């Protein structure tokens, strides 16, 4: 019996190689698309987290800075005083800052205006000290619970005299994980102990400018008339520009003429949150090159290539409480 030859045949080696190559190309394309989409999701998530951190940082700083110079109604009529620390009266202002400075307790409670080299700020960041009182009732001295510290906790330590002030200090320090963070330092009035706690990780630069009225950089101020006590600021200066060398009284008067505070921060996401490690655009803490200064390293632009997403946040707080009669 004769059988007809079969018309079915197998793949040749060339056809097999072509098919495998096409399959590999399709697989690689799918994997690449998956990786890109995952990176996109990470970037979107990181951007959202950085925005939330920026919003929280600005909210807490605005709230605390607005408290600067607040006096309990019982003492508000008398503004000519310093503040009390361990029963010693020192003429320190309600708002005071230090350029390129990390937290140093001697700077916070002392009268010095010079930042030691050992206390230079992380990435050139600045430090801000805010002082204020707690409002309380006339009878019994019960706190009205309207004031908070930089951690957001309600302050309840009522003052016994017009010289007692509470502290909230904002600065940048590295956490135990090595991440820079916006830090809050305050004094626990119940124990007398100073406490520091990170507020937000990933804040790598904090820059502060002070809106002043009738202040010339590093110059003793002239006397103002009563009609010019609370005008709008006419210029913005760094903390070190308010210092009059060898004249603490003049320096403190300059600080009392601060009418507003401009904050600039740079926040970053986790490693790998940026879609590329290539150098990005220049990052200015205040968002504008106009506020950059060679005398203030922290305001200089950064173009890191560490694969981290970065965002700037800047805002201005106008002080609502009189800082002095000067």
From TrEMBL:
<dbReference type="Pfam" id="PF16074">
    <property type="entry name" value="PilW"/>
</dbReference>
<protein>
    <submittedName>
        <fullName>Tfp pilus assembly protein PilW</fullName>
    </submittedName>
</protein>
<feature type="transmembrane region" description="Helical">
    <location>
        <begin position="12"/>
        <end position="36"/>
    </location>
</feature>
<keyword id="KW-0812">Transmembrane</keyword>
<dbReference type="GO" id="GO:0043683">
    <property type="term" value="P:type IV pilus assembly"/>
</dbReference>
<keyword id="KW-0472">Membrane</keyword>
<keyword id="KW-1133">Transmembrane helix</keyword>
<dbReference type="Pfam" id="PF07963">
    <property type="entry name" value="N_methyl"/>
</dbReference>
<dbReference type="InterPro" id="IPR012902">
    <property type="entry name" value="N_methyl_site"/>
</dbReference>
<dbReference type="InterPro" id="IPR032092">
    <property type="entry name" value="PilW"/>
</dbReference>
């Amino acid at each position: 019996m004769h059988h007809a030859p079969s018309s079915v045949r197998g793949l040749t080696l060339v056809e097999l190689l072509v098919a495998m190559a096409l399959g590999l190309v399709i697989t690689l394309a799918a994997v690449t698309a998956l990786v890109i989409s995952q990176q996109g999701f990470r970037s979107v998530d990181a951007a959202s987290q950085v925005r939330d951190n920026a919003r929280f940082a600005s909210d807490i700083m605005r709230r605390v800075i607005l408290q600067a110079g607040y006096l309990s109604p019982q003492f508000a009529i008398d503004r000519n005083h310093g503040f009390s620390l361990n029963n010693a009266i020192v003429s320190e202002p309600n708002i005071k800052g230090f350029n390129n400075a990390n937290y140093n307790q001697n700077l916070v409670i002392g009268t010095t205006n010079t930042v030691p080299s050992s206390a230079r700020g992380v990435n050139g960041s600045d430090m801000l000290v805010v002082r204020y009182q707690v409002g309380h009732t006339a009878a019994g001295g019960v706190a009205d619970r309207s004031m908070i510290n930089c951690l957001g906790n309600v302050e309840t330590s009522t003052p016994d005299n017009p010289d007692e002030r509470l502290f909230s200090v904002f600065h940048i320090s590295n956490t135990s994980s090595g991440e820079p963070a916006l830090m809050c330092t305050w004094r626990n009035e119940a124990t007398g102990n100073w406490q520091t706690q990170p507020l937000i990780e990933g804040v790598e630069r904090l820059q502060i400018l002070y809106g002043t009225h009738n202040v010339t950089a590093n110059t003793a101020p002239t006397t103002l008339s009563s009609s010019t006590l609370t005008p709008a600021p006419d210029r913005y200066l760094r903390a070190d520009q308010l210092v009059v060398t060898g004249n603490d009284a003049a320096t403190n008067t300059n600080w009392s003429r601060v009418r507003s505070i401009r904050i600039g921060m740079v926040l970053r996401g986790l490693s790998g949150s940026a879609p590329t490690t290539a150098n990005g655009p220049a990052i200015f803490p205040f968002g504008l090159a106009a506020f950059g200064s060679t005398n203030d390293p922290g305001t200089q632009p950064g173009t890191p290539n560490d694969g981290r997403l970065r965002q700037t946040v800047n805002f201005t707080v106008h002080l609502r409480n009189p800082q002095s009669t000067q």
